[in-house]
Amino acid sequence: MTVQAKCDEKGSGIKGWIGCPARDAIKVRFHCATLQKVKVMEDAEMFADVKAYDVAKGRLEDGEDELIPLEITERRLRGEPALRIWREHRKLTQERLAKKAKVSRALIAAIETKRKAGSVGTWKKLGAALDLSWEQLA
After folding, report:
1. How many Å apart are CA 87 and CA 92, to the nearest integer?
2. How many whole angstroms separate alpha carbon 3 and alpha carbon 18?
3. Potential cystine with 101: which of 45, 50, 96, 125 (Cβ 3.0-4.6 Å)?
4. What are the residues facing 17 on neighbouring strands?
């Protein structure tokens, strides 16, 4: 929410708008004390946004989180299996992933070609081997 307004000289009231001035602004009349409360809330919301951004940026810099590349999203939207997409993104062969996850290469091939669904336990092993949550794969 955006608020733009000014108090009159008496401090009794103001005229202004709420929303986007170019589109859907609502003209309003506030008491100055109300405007001050709204401004404090806007400042608090901005502070919370900046804090959330800093936390997210720190997680990225520390390697605790990663951005999902557009290519992965596009491939998922085309219906490609998430396991294959992430395996290839991590530059792993089926054989290498099988060793890391302690499952068979044949099972990975069957999951990637949708011949088998895989158990929750298998998905958890594959997710751990790919540094993902298993829900991102299933």
Report:
1. 5
2. 5
3. 125
4. 4, 27
Question: Residue 7: which of 40, 29, 38, 26 has the closest Cα?
Answer: 29
- Residue 34: how many other CB atoms lie within 10 Å: 15
* H or E segment to which residue 51 belongs: helix 32-61
Q: What is the pTM of this model?
A: 0.60
Residue type, 32: C
Q: Where are the beta strands (DSSP E) in the chain?
A: 3-7, 14-18, 26-30
DSSP 67: P
Structural domain spans, the chain: 3-61, 70-137
Query: 92: helix, coil or strand?
Result: coil
The residues, ordered by sequence, that sit 6+ positions from 28 with a Cβ below 8 Å of its Cβ are 5, 15, 16, 17, 18
Q: Which of 70, 116, 73, 78 is nearest to 126 (CA)?
A: 116
What does the alpha-carbon distance between residue 105 and residue 81 come to, in Å, rounded to a whole number?
16
In this predicted model, what pLDDT tens digit does every residue of 77-126 receive, in sequence order?
Answer: 999 999 999 999 999 999 999 999 999 999 999 999 999 999 999 999 99
Helix (H/G/I), strand (E/B), else coil: 119: coil
Helix, coil or strand: residue 12 = coil
